[in-house]
Every structure is written in C-alpha cells, then in structure tokens.
Design a protein that fits this description.
Keywords: Membrane, Transmembrane, Transmembrane helix. About 40% of the residues lie in helices and about 25% in strands. The chain is built from 6 helices and 14 strands.
Length: about 300
C-alpha cells in the first residue's frame, strides 16, 4: 500500500474547503467517534449519531492534563445554561489536530451578539448495526488453526513422540528459515509504523479513484493517493500520519493490527533465536535429531 501526494495547497481557500475530506477522531471506547464534515460535527455512539451544525457551536474546551479530550459547548441565550458534550480521543496529537480543524470552522461572533439555542439545531438518528465481516473471521480462524497445529507438534515432542519433534523442527525450517530476516525486520517495522499511526494518525474520508486506489485530502489541503488496497467501496476511512513518517492505511483497525504486528515480531524473533541455538549445537545436535529409525 503506498500513499503519494498529488497536489499542493491551493491558493484559493474556498477551493480547499470544498474539496476537504471529512476529519474523523476515533473515540477512546469502541463504537465512539467524532466526525467533522463541511458544515456540521457528528458525534457517533454505538446506538445513535448526534449531528451538530457548526453554527450551533459556541466554543470548544480542552479537557484534562493529557489533552485527550475536549468539550463542545453549544450556543445559548444569556438566560439559559449552555449544553455541552464531552469527546474523548485515543491520543493527544489526534485530538489536537481535530480541535484545530474544528476551531478554524467556527464562526467569529461578537461577545454582545445574541445567541440562539443551539440544542434546537441538533438532530439524533439511530445507528443500524453492521453485519460481521466474513473475510476477517475466516482469516482469524485460519491463523488460529495454523498456530494450533504447531502447538500440537511441540506438545507431542515434549511428551516423547520423537518423530513429531523432528517434524516440528522441519516445520520451523520450512516456514521460517528462508523468510526469517524479512519477518524479523518487517515485523519490527510493522509494529513501529502501526504504533505511530495509533498515537499520531489522523482519520479522514477517502474517495475511490479506481480499483484499489483512493484519494484523500489532509488537514493542510494537500491531496494524496493511497494505492494497493483491496477495498472496493466508494468511500472509506483512511488513517494517515500528518508528518509522513509511515504509510497511510484504510480503516482504523490499529488495535488488532498492532497485536498482530507484535505477535509476528515476537514469533520471528523466537524462531531466529531457536535456529541460531540449533545451528550452534553442531554435529552433536544433528546426530540426535536425525535418527536411523525414521527411515
């Protein structure tokens, strides 16, 4: 998957504003997010979506010392206490990027200007539950079965089934010896990139260009292309690094991806250590592993 910049910032601010992608802030809990669109802020929960027009927002306030949350304060007449909602994000940089984008959209008001009741502009709609992804479930089942097979071989070897232990060694060589260097370095790089996206990434909306390619606009108004994906939807969520240190990705699944990346790295490192120990054992270890009774 690659991400390439295709256009610089436009000199016409209105053109950038029209083309800007929706900015998405994943919530601290699963199913919660804030979505900044052209003229409204959408607060999503697992049960409903709350749409707040930008004109109904008085100000935003940063919360906590960690700055991983903010409050949206609505407009209200002087005689009414303003309504506010709290939004919590996963990382301070993502929250800061989102609030900066929201702040730029807020209208400039005079302190003496009368305010309307912003709650009258807010609408709420129920959320339809999406179906479970069959492809993701099938992948997890396949990986689980593969690891269970290796665990069964190792258990059989420990319990005295000598032939199964040799089979396990052959399985390790066949599965990990040739791509070992790629797995160790690739696993570490995968872990590092996923961790950075999780803590510094910004989520925006991407538009489909053609099969496997999407276009998105970053917070600075630059247009990028993300290619090499397996998605086919017209619109997708794209998580990208504002500093460009790592590749963008389709979707926000950093938790599962990070766990998988760490697992791949640890398995690769363990396999590398085991193969080095086996190599250092020399002819004596080989004579014990290769038994004439196996032929």
């Amino acid at each position: 998957m690659t991400s390439d910049e295709t256009a610089g910032p436009s000199s016409d601010a209105s053109t950038v504003s029209e083309a800007a992608s929706a900015v998405i802030l994943p919530g601290r809990r699963r199913g919660f997010e804030a979505r900044l669109e052209q003229s409204s802020l959408v607060l999503k929960t697992p049960d409903f979506n709350r749409r707040i027009p930008i004109t109904g927002i008085e100000r935003i306030e940063t919360l906590g010392s960690g700055k991983r949350g903010f409050a949206v304060v609505l407009t209200a007449p002087r005689t009414i206490r303003p309504t506010s909602w709290t939004v919590h994000g996963r990382s301070a940089p993502a929250v800061r990027a989102f609030t900066d984008a929201l702040q730029r959209k807020l209208p400039v008001r005079d302190s003496a200007e009368p305010r309307a009741d912003g709650t009258l502009l807010v609408t709420e709609t129920p959320v339809a539950k999406p179906p479970a992804g069959r492809r993701r479930t099938a992948s997890r089942v396949a990986v689980t079965l593969y690891l269970l097979a290796a665990a069964a071989m190792l258990t059989a070897g420990v319990l005295g089934a000598y032939e199964w232990y040799v089979a396990l060694v052959c399985w390790l060589f066949g599965s990990l010896a040739i791509p070992l260097r790629h797995f160790v370095y690739g696993g570490w790089g995968f872990t590092r990139e996923t961790w950075r996206l999780r803590n510094h990434g910004v989520l925006v909306e991407g538009r489909r260009l053609y099969a496997g390619a999407y276009e998105f606009t970053d917070l600075e108004g630059r247009v990028h292309q993300l290619t090499g994906t397996s998605e086919h939807a017209e619109q997708v969520e794209i998580l990208y690094d504002p500093e460009g240190r790592t590749k963008a990705q389709v979707g926000r699944g950093t938790t599962g991806t990070l766990i998988f990346a760490v697992f791949i790295f640890l398995v690769s490192l363990t396999a590398a250590t085991a193969l080095v120990v086996l190599a250092l054992a020399g002819p004596l270890g080989a004579s014990h592993l290769i038994s004439p009774g196996l032929y």
